Amino acid sequence: MNLNLTALDAVIFGIYILGVIGLGLYASRRGLQTKRDYFLAGDKLPWWMIGGSIIAANISSHHLVGAMGVAYSRGFVAIAMEWGAILMGFNALLWIFLPFYIRNGFYTVPEFLERRYGTAARATYAGLILLTYVLVEISAVLYLGALSLHSLLGISVMTSVIILAVITGIYTIAGGLRAVIWTEMLQLVVLVLGGLALTIATVRAAGGVSAITDTMKDWDLILPANDPDFPWTMYLGGVLCISVFYCATNQFIVQRVMASKNEWHARMGVVFGDYLKFLVPIIITVPALVAPKLFPHLEKPDLLFPTLVEKLLPSGLVGLVMAGLIAAVMSHLSGAINSCTTILTVDIYLPYIRRQATEAQAVRFGRIAGAVIIVLGILCTSLFLTHSNKPVFLYLMNAYGLFTPGIAAMFLLGILWKGATHAGALAAGMLTIPLSILMEMVYPSMPFFNRTGIVFWSCMALCVVVSLFTRRKPEAELAGLIWNKASLSLPPEQKALQQGWRNPTVWWAIITAIVLFFYIRFA
Questions:
Q1: Is 104 helix (H, G, I), strand (E, B) or coil?
Q2: pLDDT tens figures, 183-242
Q3: Is 260 helix (H, G, I), strand (E, B) or coil?
Q4: CA distance linking residue 16 with residue 94, whole number of Å
């Protein structure tokens, strides 16, 4: 497959690339050279930027390419992970974790673990999360984006990887979170417009709206327990674990919440993100549901996206959709790079290497760390150059299962149970990778969601048992770190902001009801 872009497509694509680089560099000149400004955009993000940037960073090539491939081969259930995040992960962030991140003024998620447990827990999380970002977020996103560029334009995969990494790295390293957020808002618009163009073109080619309604009889969100990829038992632990980690304890997502103007903007931003999290996966999934009518025998499901672009889109729209793909890659990549640099600087460099570093020295180290992370991401991309015919998206979920059970256990027990101890948290964190590998070796045919669920509950149990036999922190040191009913409410000085339709709870209830309706209707 080799797509020849017309002059119009090339112009649209080129304008987008230059626009993103220009906007990112412009944003980088707007801020002060302080840690708070570079890593948290000066704590000035409004709700619409928070929600928009969360989803722009979240949706990437592993959705446009990977999730679309899953929907092509497995159907409507591909959307379950995305909507499940609304009911699980984002609810955990909104109602449990968010107040503690905001009210304690944290830069990073590991800082919570240090305050709650101790320095070793902070270092354990930092190590696990950096492995996850480099091996899963950065390298996989680069690979899938490069795979599509290779399929469409004939550019070699590694060349595409390097181009994507360098372009994104320029403004991410220069401007920090401020540049990342500004460019993500542009990228979200381009992503949605490109996705809508591809959806409309595919549905029209398949026969119109009736092509969608014809597939509704197979819209199953809950599958039998013996399904090899998406058994209903996945909701008992695997999906819960990954969703809570990704949405509520993941620096990649939470950093945007920490950068909010205040807690009302943070809460409203998460709720706005719920609406986008509901709509964007529909745009991605619908073309894949009707595509089998047009292309019933694709060699690899992950080739669906470039196939639709090549076969169905007219001149001009090809450039827009290609820009949408690159927007998804760059927004996700820039967020992951920025999160890595923040953790490396705040959780490793400042506490362990240079405690007395100035603001300028901390920012300089963050930029150097960003360049190193980009190089590592490029090198790790080679891990994805050989894979089976199974959609890569499923491999990504499996990779999350290696790292996340212990992290989720550390956070959930730490914030919900004052009896959790430092030793218990460390035991859970250190168990997650060896037990995950052992489960995969002993039960290779077990769905990875089920394996992840077993590891998750094992880590929870181990943390509880070890905590019962080790010394807990005095209650005075846990003040402001354990969940209680007051965590559900805004601080008194901000309650006036949520009058009437400005109340985040009202908008949260609406989107939650909509998602629950779909789960009940298509169970």
A1: coil
A2: 888 878 887 888 888 889 888 988 888 888 888 887 888 888 888 778 888 888 888 888
A3: strand
A4: 34
Give the pLDDT confidence of 73-121 residue by residue, as tens digits.
888 888 887 888 899 999 999 999 998 888 888 888 888 888 999 888 8
Give the global pTM.
0.86
Q: How many CB atoms lie within 10 A of CB 457?
A: 16
Neighbours of 383 (CB within 10 A): 14
Q: How many helices (H) and strands (E) does the chain have?
A: 23, 0
Nearest Cα residue to 243 out of 203, 274, 283: 274
- How far, in Å, CA of 411 to CA of 428, rounded? 10
Q: How many C-beta neighbours within 10 Å does residue 505 have? A: 14
- Note whether 250 and 31 are within 8 A (CB): no
Spatial distance between the Cα atoms of 167 and 261, rounded to a whole number of angstroms: 29
Q: With the C-alpha atoms ordered 19, 20, 25, 30, is the resulting torsion angle positive or negative? A: positive
Would you tell me how many other CB atoms lie within 10 Å of the CB of residue 23? Answer: 18
Beta bridge partners of 260: 45
Question: How many Cβ atoms from other residues are within 10 Å of residue 429's Cβ?
Answer: 26
Q: Which residues pair with 223 in a beta bridge?
A: 231
